Amino acid sequence: MKDAKRISWVLVFAFLIFSGYSCSQGPVKARIGPDGYDAVVVGAGGGGMAAAAKLALGGLKVLVIEQHDKVGGFMSAFERNDYRFEVSLHAMDGMGIEAFDDLGIDKKVRLHKTDPAYRSVFPDAYFDIPADAEKYRQLLKEKFPAESKGIDKLWKDLHSIDYIMNNLMNLEAKKNIGSSLLKILTSPCKLWILHKFWTGNSTDTLGAYIKDPKLFTLFTQLMAYTGIDPDNVSGMLFAMMWVSYHFHGFYYFEGGSQAVTKALAEVVQEHGGKVLLNTLVTRIVMKDGLAVAVQTKDGKEFPCRYVVSNANAPDTFFKLVGREYLPQDYAKNLDNMKIGASAYAVYLGVNKDLSGEFPPGIHSYFVNPGWDQAETFRYFREGIPEKAMFGLINYTMADPTDAPKGKNVIALVSMMPYDYKGDWLMSQGYDKYKALKEEVAQKFIERGTKLVPSLKSSIELMEVGTPKTMERYTLNPKGTIFGWEYSINQSMFKRLPQKTPIDNLYLAGAWTFPGGGQSAVLLSGLETAKMILKREGK
């Protein structure tokens, strides 16, 4: 018990220090003139827009600069003819939704809560997974009765993790500080559970509760959202993701994730800030160890007191800032970090309402090649579209506004290597590249048609996004959707902190804590803004 209490103090102080709760330096004082800004945000992805909105709400003069023609990054949509395609969102977890009030968008976005959450499909079985945690527990006990005791214990311990994390979040937000701290420090058993998940991988941690390999694979279905296999994912990372979905809810938005980032942009503009689109940042100007301005490709310069980079971390430090301004150990650490996987997506506009070919109330499938997790993730790494796990989503069932009446928007989403067939045959010319990406698309469509019989015959419009596409539109190296890979040594507190070695340069987004995913990047940007506002005494 003494060890558990010691761990409780360590975890509390580690969380608070990492989240910026500890003492920080005072505000950055600089003469920026009437044309300058308190903060310039580089990149208008979800993390950048969340940071910008919170800073604007806090009274700072904010400028957001984005190279694309719209805000959002992976939190966006695109239109083709009468169809609106969601770039990446399948569902947002409830912890992200809980931040909407703090970001000023709770009245601006229309939510749709989904339950059941999804259908898990295997070659010999399928399971309709409830979003509600208690219904999910009962389903697993019914399907795997020999595992009932372990399932009950796992649910109890996941509730303990949720309890501790909620109180840690209250401390970070300075809500009910006394009672939250007391609840944490008087719960050594719950903290011991937190410690076990924190220090182990998902296979070992969950293996203490689940013995049946099929149950393990089913329960870890959401591992697809990490991009790597359970052996290499922190038990705590998976637990937090699972808890956030199943204890806090699965949500979709009218207008998709673009509605969220559009709402954040409105908050910025309503509070005196500006959003500059179609403008590429080429340099963060350094002087006396500080970031003093941001330069753009058209030669303009924007003086500022703070810079928040929502651009990818490698480019932020090695292209925009310059290695010479970084401590050697920090630059070396960046060199050694591994970039995460990229998505491959087929976006379909179909001229038929296919909702009747989906299960009632379920708009999303996970289609698994088998029960072997190692093989599943090997298919991702090696790029085998005939076998790789994929998601099949009917977005119109979640949001009828994305297609004309009687038609649907369908997406088939998987992961493929950035170097598939070398460079997706791009070096052989665009026609070769186009033919290859459509060849891969047809393989996923054939597999999808086995589940939705009218799919292939109803296609009216098709767009394909390869890792090269993702890289072109977001500038993320290798087109990654995760930022850094979610391996154990690159996740949780081992992710890059929002605070950088440059005193007034901060990060927001997937490359920093807590990581990739739409909910996570919003929380990242929100925490970045809170750190700056605290320095400002706001």
Describe this structure in words.
- The chain is of the alpha/beta class and 538 residues long.
- Among the domains are: 80-131 and 339-483, 2-Layer Sandwich (Guanine Nucleotide Dissociation Inhibitor, domain 2), CATH 3.30.519.10; 134-248, no CATH class.
- Helices cover 40% and strands 18% of the residues.
- The chain has 20 helices and 19 strands.
- It has helices at residues 2-18, 46-57, 94-97, 100-103, 133-143, 148-172, 177-185, 188-199, 202-207, 213-219, 235-246, 257-270, 313-321, 328-336, 373-382, 395-398, 421-424, 430-449, 467-474, 518-535, and strands spanning 37-42, 62-65, 77-80, 83-86, 92-93, 111-113, 118-122, 125-129, 250-253, 274-276, 281-287, 290-296, 301-309, 343-350, 364-367, 390-394, 408-415, 459-465, 505-507.
- Strands 1, 2, 10, 11, 12, 13 and 19 form a seven-stranded mixed sheet that branches.
- Helix 2 links the parallel strand 1 and strand 2.
- Helix 2 (46-57) packs parallel to helix 20 (518-535) and helix 5 runs antiparallel to helix 6 (148-172).
- The protein is globular, with a radius of gyration of 23 Å.
- It starts with a helix and ends with a helix.
- The model is unreliable at 1-10 (pLDDT under 50).
The largest sheet is: 7 strands, mixed
Q: Give the C-level CATH assignment of the domain at 80-131 and 339-483.
A: Alpha Beta
CATH topology of the domain at 80-131 and 339-483: Guanine Nucleotide Dissociation Inhibitor, domain 2
Q: Work out the number of β strands.
A: 19
Stretches with pLDDT under 50, minimum 5 residues: 1-10
